[in-house]
Amino acid sequence: MVGEIEAADRISRCIIYHRFFEGNVHVNDLLFNFGQAKADGAAHESAVLRSLAPTDADVHRIGCKIVAKQNDLPATKQSDRRYYCGFRTADVNALPLEGDGYRIELTNVEELGEKAHVDVALRIFVTGSNPRATRRTAAGMALAEKFGPVSPHICPSDNDDPGHPIIRWGVQCLGGTVRWATLAIPTANDASELQAELQVGVATS
Amino acid sequence: MKVVADQGSGASSVTNDVRALAEQYFETMDAQLAELEAMTTDQDPPVEAGAVETAKEIARQIREYPMVPPQLSWHGGDAVVMLWAFSTITYALTITAGEVGYVVRKNREQIAMRDSIRLTEFKLLEEK
Questions:
Q1: Per residue in B89-109, pLDDT tens?
Q2: Which member of A42, A48, B18, B77 lies 3.0 to 4.6 Å from A196 by CB, making a disulfide possible if both were Cys?
Q3: Dihedral (C-alpha) A84, A89, A92, A98: value to the nearest 10 degrees?
Q4: Which ipTM score applies to this complex?
Q5: pTM (global) more than 0.90
Q6: Closest in A34, A133, A196 to B96, CB measured
Q7: What is the pLDDT of residues A159-193, one digit of tens each?
Q8: How many whole angstroms separate alpha carbon B36 and alpha carbon B31?
Q9: B97 vs chain A: nearest CA distance in angstroms?
Q10: Cβ separation of B10 and A193 shorter than 8 Å?
C-alpha cells in the first residue's frame, strides 16, 4: 500500500553502526550512502514517516527491528554485528529532491510490516561511471545536511552489550565529525612556526 | 584548503600534536585503501580495482603536497570518496577508475560540481 507524503511531514533516518560511522564517530556524510541503481533504475534507502510513527519510541522500535533482522542473517559474524544508535529527522519540505542530473523520490510504502516505511529513491539521469557516482555523492551530501541531531537510543537487547557504540564511546560518538579549521604542514623550505587548530563540531553544524 | 602561517607563534607543541594527528589520519586512510585493494579479488568487492588504484594515486598526491588528510568512504561498488570538511565548506572527491569528480558545498548549498576529470588532468588545488 502506498501512502501520500505531505510536505509538512517529517522523515527520520535510523542510525546503524557500523554503516553510518567513520571509525568511532557517526558522520554526516555517511547518512545517505546511495549504492548502484537497481532494476527499476533507482538506488534505494529507507526512512520512517513521522505522521505514521509520531513518537520517538515508535521510531526506536522500528530501528531496533531493522538491526535485529540484519543481525539474524546466517552470515553475520560478531565483528559485523550491527547496532541501532538512534535517529535523525528532517522536514520533508526542506529536503533537496531535485539536483543537477538527479532526482530523489519519497514514497510511503509498507515494508517488513511497517506502514511508516519511506522508500528514498535516487534516480540519476546522466550516464557514465564517474558522472553517476559523483551525483550519488552530491545527493547524499545534500540530503544529510537537512537532518537534525541524533536522538540516541540503545535497544533493550543491547543494554548489556559492551560493543554498542554508545556504551563503548558515549553519546558523543553520535554527534561529532573532526573538522580541520586550519592545518598547515611546513614544506622543506618553510622554517616558520605554524599555527594549527583542530575543531570538533556536531555533524549538523 | 586553507594554509595558515603565523610567524613565531610559539605554538610548536600544538603543531606537533596536530601533525601527529594528521599522520594518524593518513595511516588510517592508507590502511583503508590497502584493505579495499585486498578485497578487489573477492567475488563481490566493495569497490572495483580500477577505482581503488586511482584513489591510491590521489592519496599519494595528497601526502606529497602535503595536504590535510581526507575522510574516506566508498559507494556503489565503483567509487571511492575523499571528503574534507572545513568549517562551513565540505569538499568531496568521487574517484572512479581513471577519473575524478568533485562536489563543493558551502553554507549548506552546492556551489560547484564537476565530473569525469581524467586522472592525468586532475589537480588537487587550483594554481593561482
A1: 888 999 999 999 999 998 889
A2: B18
A3: -70
A4: 0.87
A5: no
A6: A133
A7: 999 999 999 988 888 875 544 433 333 322 232 32
A8: 9
A9: 8
A10: yes
